[in-house]
Structure formats: C-alpha cells, structure tokens
Amino acid sequence: MKLFYTATLFILLNVCAFNQVSAQSASYIQSLQAQNHWVDSVFNTLNMRCKIAQLFFIRAHTNRGQAYADSVAQVIKKQQPGGLVFFQGGPVRQVNLSNQYQKLAKIPLLIAMDGEWGLGMRLDSTISYPYQMALGAVQDNTLLNQMGQQVAYDFKRIGMHLNFAPVMDINNNPDNPVINYRSFGDNKYNVAQKAIAYMQGMQQGGLLTTAKHFPGHGDTNVDSHMDLPLLNFTRQRLDTLEEYPFKEAIAAGISGIMVAHMSIPVLDNTQHLPSTLSRPIITNLLKDELGFKGLVVSDAMEMKGVVKYFPGGEADVKAFIAGNDILELSENSARAIKKIKQAIHSGQVTEQELDAKVKKVLAAKYWAGLNQYQPSNPIGTVADLNRQQAKALVQQLSNAAVTLLQGDSVIQQLDFGQNTALVSIGTEGPSVYQYELGKVFTNARMFNVGKSASAAEISQLLAMLHGYPQIVIGIHDSRLRPASKLDFSASVKQLIAQLAGNKGSVISVFANPYTLANLPGIEKAGAILECYQKDESMQRAAVKVLTRQLIPQGKLPVRINAFWANGTGLVLP
Predict the structure, then answer these.
(1) Backbone angles phi, psi at 317, to 5 degrees
(2) What sign does the CA torsion over 69, 73, 74, 79 have?
(3) pLDDT score at 24
(4) What is the DSSP letter of 476?
(5) CA–CA gap between residue 526 and residue 471 (Å, rounded)
(6) Is the pTM of this model over 0.90?
C-alpha cells in the first residue's frame, strides 16, 4: 500500500510539473490569442473601480520599517491594486512581506522590480551581474541568455513575476545622465541582439519582461526623473535608430514595453506632453503601427518628467487614455482610480478599452502562475540566490567582456619575475587586482593612490616608482554607478598621463569606457584593458589576461574618440 501511494504521488507530481511547463510553452504574447477561462471568471467578478485598480502598481520597500510596510498593506487591503514594484531592501524580508501582502489581495498581486543586472540592482545579499554596458562587449550572446535564465530563477524564487528589463535604449550620447552604462551601447544591432538574448532567457525561465524606455531614451542630456527631456529628431531617424531595438524585440515576442517620459514633437507636438501621456505615440504608433500586443507599462508616474506639467492626478488620466496598460507608482492611486472612472463615464475613453487592458493584466498573472498562487519559502533564500552556478556565470561574463584596446605585444612581454610596481589609482587600500597580480608577479610591490591625492603625495609616489622596469596600473572608479567622467582630482589625472607615458606601462580601467576620453595622455600607454566597472570579477578577469591565462574577446560597445572606435578589441596572439 505504501509503495502504491509513493508511486501515485510521484506520478501526480510529474503531471503537475508537466502542466506547469506546458502552461509556459507558449509565450505570454501567444497566450493572449487563446480564450482563458480563469481570466474570464476573475474578470466577471470585477466592478469598474476594481477593474481600474488592476492597472495600478504601487511602490514597496523592505528597508523603511514597519510603519511603511503597514501603510502599503493598508493600500493593498483598501484599493486592491494589480501589483507591486519592490525597491531597496533584503531578499528574506521581501519574501516574508510579499507573502503577507498576497494574503491581503483578492486577486494575487503581480510583483515587479527593476532588475537590469539582477536582484542586486535593488536588494542586498544578492548577486549583481555585469551592467549592460559591459555586457555589450561580450561576443557570445548565449551567455546573456544564460544570465536571463538565472535572473528569472532569482525573481521567481522570491515571489516576483515581472522584470522591468532589459534596457533597449541606444546610448549614443556619452553625457546621458540616466541611461549610459545601463545601455548595451551605441550600435543599434548590437543593442537589439544583446537585449533580445537576455529577454529570451528570462522569458524561457518563466519571467515577464519589459523593454525600456520606448521610443528610446539614449540620446538625451536630461534625466526624466528630474525634468522632461526633449527628443527633437526627425521621424526617419526615430524609425531607423531609436525604435529599431524595440521593433526587433516585438518581432521576438517580448511580453512588455515601458514608455519613457519624453517630449517628442515629431510624434506629438502637444506642448510639454510626455510620450507616456500621448495617444499618438502609444496607441497609434506602438500598438497600431508597430503591432505590439503585449503589456504597455508607463515609466514611474511620480517622476518630475511627467507630473511637472500635469499635476493633481491629470497625468494618470492622460496615461490611461494614451493606451498604457499598467500605471506604475502613481503619486496617489486612490485619486487616480477615481479620476479614470470619471473619464470613462464622461466618454473620454471607452469601457471596452479598460476591459482589454484588464484582461491583459489578468492574462499576465495567469501566465506567471498566479492562478495557482503559492507563497514563497523564506528558508534557504540567501543560499539559493548566491548559488555557485550564478557566481560562476558572473565571472564568465566578466571574462568575456574585458576588452584589450591596445598593446597585445606588451602584455606578451610581461616578465613575472621582474621588479614590478602594482599601482591602483582611486583606491585607499590594496585592491583585488593588486592581490591577484601579486600571486603571479613574484617580485612586486603595491602602491595605492586615492582619487583626491595631493600634488605632494603624487610627487612622492613618482619618486618611489622611479626605476621600476614594469609598472602595472589599475584605474578604479569607486562609485556605485560608473559615470562618464571620473571624479578624480586634476593632479591624479595628470599622474595617469605621466604613468601612461612610461614605456611598457600596462593599464586596466575599471570604469565606464567613456572615462577614457577624459584622460588625455592615457592613449600613450603600452597596453590598455577596458574593464567597464569596479567589481572584483572584472579585476580577476583583467589579471587573467595580464598573466596570459585568458585570451580577451571583448569589443568596445561604444565609440570613445578618434583612438578607439566602436568594435575595437584585440585578441592576444
């Protein structure tokens, strides 16, 4: 009897597993074509206010204390929104809070996060994959697909269903204050291919994805969190450049697209009107002309780029009428729901449009498995999210990204027994780069230079470096987000130029590639490795190249200046 029970249980478990796989064998876009009885049954229980509420996603944190968590719970209980967007906090806290919040929801919540480089973008104690700028240098797109699958696992492990990623903006403005390193680069073909590989990996892992920021936020010099950027380009340019990755993503079956807050006169000349509030841009262009059938998500409705000119809930109504299916982070969702209901009653938009949006959101919940919602298990969360397989992939991606800009012969001639100075600039103490190099260069001494070192300190350092036949240098941006220009003092930048001028100097740049353009004289170095960001995995990858354990394969994803064009990247002989 016991054997029969065990065998029966095994069969049932396998049937359940098969059903779950079968439910996701069709993409979310494909699933919209079939009648869905769960969607219909839930939809038929909703009055107009409840329907509208399903379109709103509200903000949640796990690092703001109990009072804040309780306030979010009250909103869920009273308004019954469609979903949550989690921000900073910790993974175990988020699992526990998500489970509590789901208990308050009559229809399970669709839970989202900005995870462009994985959970580490928002949560402590989790893994961060390389930024998209670094990934733009990788030549093997299957690695990005694997990353997408790992990110999907992480999201689902802590009860999330929707990633506001990947970024599909083409960063053709080096001074872009908001996209920049979050982009795969300035080549539209590379951006599209990388983003689609990442997206497909996530969707294959059962995660809903969102390409952003339509129709393209890459050539702006204004941060839409602060004000309304202007895209004053021709229709031909937008069609052939900014929109290209989004068109490719639509053809590849992406489940969602996020619309940016930008003024684009050639598409809609209404003064100060953000694209998020434009029906010609969202309904006429994105939905009708480009044929996108998936979820259209607004960028955060609390951002200054949208509420500056449309305060008091007016932005929410206009975003709804424009064609957005999900409105995230409204300043006041209760007010917005009321105003949208009034707009429908007054005939500004039809109830049929509302119904179509709600069914798309419910279909997304079904595709994500919320028709059979189960709470997440907090036990073992941190260990699961920091599994060895994921850590190994981070190193693999870093290895594949490191780009040799010049000096392949100089690297080949490095003598590991020679008297060598290992210099890290921008660090206050020894770096991983120095420690790892020190294991191979057996006659080496470490030197560190802070980013604000005085002229006297630099003069003293130069005196100590005099006579070293080999100088191996690391330039480290210590900031969390690698901006286009290093925040080094003029004296430190001059030091870099002086050291680069030494014959045979080898420099690894653990910073945004655009920083090279603001380091005059660095091009004189014997060898230069571009390593994109400060992370330990990048430092280890650089060491592997310098110690001839790794053949660099990366290619620059952006143009720097006359010395280094897009696609620059040497391979050691």
Answers:
(1) -65, -45
(2) positive
(3) 55
(4) E
(5) 10
(6) yes
* Rounded Cα gap, residues 106 and 47, in angstroms: 13
Banded model confidence at residue 460, pLDDT cuts 50, 70, 90: very high
Identify the band that residue 304 occupies on the pLDDT scale cut at 50, 70 and 90: confident
- In whole angstroms, how far apart are CA 303 and each of 221, 328, 507? 16, 11, 40
Q: Is 212 helix (H, G, I), strand (E, B) or coil?
A: strand
The C-alpha atoms of residue 97 and residue 95 are separated, in whole angstroms, by 6
Question: Who contacts 466 (Cβ-Cβ below 8 Å, separation ≥6)?
Answer: none
- Cα–Cα separations (whole angstroms), residue 557 to 198, 206, 241: 16, 29, 16
How confident is residue 491, by pLDDT bands cut at 50, 70 and 90? very high
Q: How are the residues of the chain apportioned to helix, strand and coil, as percentages rounded to the nearest 5?
A: 45, 15, 40
Residue in this structure with the two tokens 């409105």, named with its chain if needed: 327
* Contacts of residue 141, Cβ cutoff 8 Å, sequence gap at least 6: 193, 194, 197
Tokens of 66: 């109990």
Tell me which DSSP letter residue 517 carries.
Answer: G
Q: Which of 380, 381, 362, 481 is nearest to 155 (CA)?
A: 381
- Token pair for 46: 């909703």
* Beta pairing, strands 527-530 & 403-406: antiparallel
DSSP 8-class letter at 260 = P
How many CB atoms are located within 10 Å of the residue 144 CB?
A: 27
DSSP H or E segment with residue 449: strand 444-449
Closest CA to 84 of 48, 114, 45: 114
Mode of pairing for the β-strands spanning 256-259 and 211-214: parallel
Distance in angstroms (rounded) separating the CA atoms of residues 354 and 136? 39
DSSP assignment string, 284-340:
IIIIIIS---SEEEESPTTSHHHHTTSTTTHHHHHHHHHT-SBEES-S-HHHHHHHH
Beta-bridged to residue 111, according to DSSP, are 84
Contacts of 20 (CB under 8 A, 6+ apart): 369
The pLDDT tens digits of the residues spanning 53-83 come to 999 999 999 999 999 999 999 999 999 999 9
C-alpha to C-alpha distances, 227 to 58, 181, 263, 473, nearest whole angstrom? 22, 20, 10, 40
* Residue with token string 């191996």: 472
Look-up of token digits 């000349």: 269
Both structure tokens of 319? 């975003």
CA–CA distance, 42 with 46 (Å, rounded to integer): 7
CA dist 133 → 34, 484, 514, 556 (Å): 38, 12, 10, 9
Amino acid at 120: G
Q: Which two tokens stand for residue 289?
A: 């002309």
CB atoms within 10 A of CB 491: 16
pLDDT at 155: 98
Rounded CA-CA distance 418/426 in Å is 25
Q: What is the pLDDT of residues 263-281, one digit of tens each?
A: 999 999 999 999 999 999 9
